[in-house]
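Customer ticket, subject: "Can you confirm the structure for CHASE2 domain-containing protein?"

Message body: Hello, I'm evaluating your service for our small team and ran a test protein. I'd like someone to confirm that this is what the system normally returns, since I don't have a reference to compare against.
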Amino acid sequence: MPSILKWMRRFGTGRILGLLLLLSLLALRVLDPGFVEALRLKSIDIYQLMHPRAERQDLVAIVDIDEQSLRALGQWPWPRTIMAEMVAKIVEGGGTVIGFDVLFPEPDRSSPEVAAETFQGLDDATREKLRHLPSNDIIFANAIRASAVVLGRSGYRVSGSVPTAQAGIQTGIATLGPDPRLFLVEFPHLLQNLAVLDEAAQGHGMFSVSPDRDGVVRRLPVVAVAGGTIVPSLSLEMLRVATGSETVLVKTDPSGVRSVRVGAFEIPTDGKGRVWVHYSSPNLGRYISAIDLLRDRVPAGALAGKMVLIGTSAAGLLDLKVTPIHPALPGVELHAQLLESALTGSTLSRPSYTAFIELVLAALMSVMLIAKAPKVNAGTLFALGGATAAVTLGVSWYLFAGLDLLIDYTFPLVASFLVYAVLVCTNYVTVSADRYRIRSAFSQYLSPELVEQLAQSPEKLTLGGEQRELTVLFSDVRGFTAISELYKDDPNGLTALINRLFTPLTRDIIKRRGTIDKYMGDAIMAFWNAPLTDPNHEVNACEAAFAMLDSLKALNEQRQREVGDNQPVSPLRVGIGLNTGLCVVGNFGSDLHFNYSVLGDTVNLASRLEGLTKLYGVPIVVGEKTARAVRSRFAVLEVDHLQVRGKRELERIFTIVGHADVLGDPDFVELVERNGDMLAAYRNCDWPQALELNFLCRELGKKFGLDDYYELYVQRIRHRANTSVSSS
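Agent reply: Thanks for trying us out. I re-ran your input and got the following:
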C-alpha cells in the first residue's frame, strides 16, 4: 500500500482520475446509450443544415396528391380510373419509372360491378351491363402493365388485424457475405396491393420508414425483412427497374450490411441496411399537383427523362415526416431525396469502423492532455486542447462536406473536455520518483546474494545498464498446449502444476549462481555473470541445465507414484537453450517500474536455440561460444549451423550429451568424429556418404539418446537427394 500511495503521488491524483474518467467514457461509448446516440445524431443534423446536398431538378419529380387536388377530385382514395389516367399522363410526359408511395390494398368501391350490387333502383338491364364492364382495378392494372411502374408496400410492427407479412411477388436478391437477415430492419407485418395490381407491376418496394428514437428520419432502409424474406425499398426498386437490373446485391460482413448494389450504383448503408440520406433543401420545383397533371396544366418537358413518384403532401393523409432539414416533410420526398442521392453518388456513409476511429481519437486527445498536464500550465493546456479540437472539427467537416463521410466529432470533443476539466480542477502535481526498496520484490528473480546487496545499496535500482559477457538460458515446457487442454476445467490445477515445476528449476538456477530474469507462461529466462561476476558462468549455466533435467525427471517420477502405476501421467519435458555473448544488463523500464534484465542479440539467439531443441530432438542446444568454453567439462556434439543476424559466417550450434565422464567414452569419441564427417558430407551435398555415416552415427548415438536427431538428418538427406535428382 505505501508503494501504491507513492506511485499515486508521483503520477498525480488528477492524472489518475483523468485516466479513470477516460476509461469510463470509452466504456460508455461502447455501450452507446440513448443520450450518447442523441448527441451524435444532433451533430449530424447540424452538418446537414450547414451543408445540404446541392439541388437537382432534372432527376426526380413528385406528382402530389395535395390539398388542391383533393378539393377538386374528392377525398382519398380516388377511383382507380383516375390513377390509370395519371399513369398514362406521366408516360405521355416522358416519365421513365413511376413509383407509388400510396397503397391499394382493397378493391375500388366505385367499380361498375360494385355499383351494380350496391346501387338501389337500377333496372335489371342496367345492372347487367354494369356487371360486364371492366372493373376500375382491371383498368388500372392494364395501365400499370403498359408502363414501368413500381408499387409500394407498407411494413408494420403493430399487431392486430394486419395480416402477417407475406412476401408475395419477389425481387431477385443476391447476397455477398453473412445472411443479411441477421442485421436488417424487420417488419413482422406487411400490407400489400391487390393481387391483380401487384401482378401487373414491374417492381414492388416498401415505403415504410424507421425514424430514430427522437422521431427524426435520418436513415431510410433500402432493404428490410418481411416475413423472413428480404424486400427492397420503393426507391431501390425504382432504381432497379430504371437500370433494367434483374437483381439487387446486398453486401455484408460480420459487423452488418455494408452496401447495396443495383446496376452500376453502389449505395453504402449502415449495418442495418439503412442509407444516411444527404438531404437537399426542400424544393417545391420537383412537385407537380395531381390535378394539374390530370388537366394538362403541366409545362412541356417537366416530366421528361425523370423518375416520378406519386405521393401526398396533404396533412390529412398523415404522411408528413420530421427530418434534419424540415419539421414536416412529405414522406414521398424522402424517397425522392434518396433517389437523387443515389443517382448523384452523394449518399452519406458511416462505415462500421468509424466508431473505432472515434474511440481512438477520443483516447489520443485525452491521453495527450493527461501526458502534458504536469509539464504545462492550465492556459497552455487549454490552448493545446483548443487546437486539437479545431483540427478535429476541421477534419470532421472536410470528411462530411468533401467525402460524404460521417464522423462523430462530439464524443472525442466532449470526452477530452471532461478529462481536461478533471485535470485542471484537481491541480496536477508532479512528484519525484521513489525508488523501490522492498527486498521481496527482487527475491523472486534474483539470487540471494544480489537481493542482500541491493537491500544494502538501493541506489543501484536506477535505470541504466552496462555491457558484459553473459550466458543466457531459456527453458520452455514441451507440449504445454496439450497439457493445458487436460486442465481446461481446472485452472487452479494447472497453476499448481506450473508452480510445482518452476520451484525446483528455479532452485537449480539460483543454486548455481544464476539470476532469474522472468517467467513467461511456461518458460523461464535466466542469466549468469550479472550482477555478480562469475568467471565460470558458462560451466555453471550448463550445470544448472543438467540439474534442471534431473529435477524434472524426479518430479515426473513423483507424479507417477502419486497416481499409481495403473494410471500413467503425461511426463513433463523441457527444452533448454544456452548462449554466451555480450549483452546489455541493468535495470530496464520506466521511472515508476523496472526490472533487472538483459538485452541483446545473445538473448535472442538463446531463445532461438531453446526453440530448436524440439526440432533436433535433444533437451539442450547451446551456442558455439558456450560449447567452446565447456568442452573440457561436458560432452558436446555439433548438430548444425545457423545464420545469425549481424554475422557473415554461420554460427555452429551444439547439444550437450553428458558430463565429463562421457568425454572418455570410446563410443562418444568415435561419435564426435563420425558426426563431424556426416555434417561435412551433408554440407557438401554428398548424399550417399552422408546417409551411410548417418546410419553409423545412429548406432553410436543410441546410448546417448540421439535417435530423433539422426532421424531428422535421414529425412533431410533423403529430401535433399530427391530434390537434387528432380532438378537435374
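A couple of notes from the result: Residues 159-168, 428-438 have pLDDT under 50 and may be disordered. The domain at 439-457+466-663 is CATH 3.30.70.1230 (Alpha-Beta Plaits). Feel free to reply with more questions.
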